Amino acid sequence: MSSTENTVDLFVIGGGINGCGIARDAAGRGLSVTLAEMNDLASATSSASTKLFHGGLRYLEYYEFRLVREALHERETLLRAMPHISWPLRFILPHQKGMRPRWLLRTGLFIYDYLGGRKILPATRRINLRTDPAGRALQPRFTHAFEYSDCWVQDSRLVVLNARDAAARGANILTQTKVISAKRQGDLWRIVTEHDGVETIHHARALVNAAGPWVRDVIDTALALPSSENIRLVRGSHIVTRRLFDDDRPFILQSPDNRVVFVIPYEQDFTLIGTTDQDHDGAPGAATCTDAEADYLCELASQYLAKPISRDDIVWRYSGVRPLYDDGASSATAATRDYVLSLDSDGPAVLHVFGGKITTYRRLAESALAKLAPHLPKHNAAWTARVAMPGGDFPHDGVPGLIADLQQKYPFLTPKWAQRLIRAYGTEAVQVLGGAKVLDDLGVNYGGTLTEAEVNWLCCHEYARTAEDILWRRTRLGLHFSPEMTAKLVADLEAKQ
Q: What is the pTM of this model?
């Protein structure tokens, strides 16, 4: 067992969006920070979302106005900070007879437009599906719809960029590092971590438990603390098919059971459909999209789309577990999506993070630091609302110009390849490609536009270690990779370790 020499101000357990967001915020305030993630960054819930910065239109039905208002305000704040990995979407909400009446949808969308201080995103409008191109993807019986604004986000890349920026501001980011125990020792926490079979002792003035679906397990096992708070594990499953329609606008579909399902153009060549809401009884890391959930999503989409789909059309499916605060709701759909921050200050402080939406992660981090402020050294004020993420230092509408510039500098890039790189790395794309003049300068070409140069960048700068880290969290290129292509990448990575 080894021991660290320094005591940090804040030790964060969990490398999902909440943990990395808190680490970034704290480091930027001048606090010393260590974060430990037992697997890869964004390896659980934070890479298994519907990938939206959205207010949560249906949450209005559950009177969660504070959450919706906060989320709506955040959309544009985040869009300005990360215009490479987030961009506006215009959602089509078809009116379905027998479900929510048209006046109710119109009223909800009016509130949605004006609750959040919208400046960049355009307002809601009514469209005629008989004349609008969006109508071609739907069955002829759908004649009217509403078009409204929300935003896309590349969820796992968001987590990685928060971790990178935290590290650039002095934080120590430890992946593949599990917290074995954390005990109060005088005025400090004594934390034991394990990495590759080696245990290390850390000391911290305060602790954050942002372990997501494992937050309760950390309380019960690693910390061994009494707590009355509980979480409700809710499984959200998604399916991915080949691209189902040409229009770039996604659909939001109402279901007879009062849920909504999104149908979204995905990764240029695919369509993403989700999500479900099912109580999850198993281990958090064992969540899978069941055949029943896949069938549910196929059947609902087929009730709207001109071309029905079935399980045979699915090319990939995934599932994540939302760690919602247990508010006693009668169903998983009705359970609150708001976050709860529980502070235990009986000795050195520990803050437990329950719930939360990816859209409000930045505000959650600010709230966490506000609660912890009396237990931390004097530090700077909130700052993250006005600072760009790595690679995001350009105007919110500047992506087309960056793509054109990248193609001019690297003529061997195809338009789709250049778009993917800018959407992943923004202004840092030129650092990924370096001084390459021709394709061969990028080293091994693994296919799917993935080259050795990009792999090296991801391993050196973005904490990637395995092929899964690269293909399914840093790039999503796993959708384009055959088993043979994956095996080549695996072998090369193992040879470098």
A: 0.95
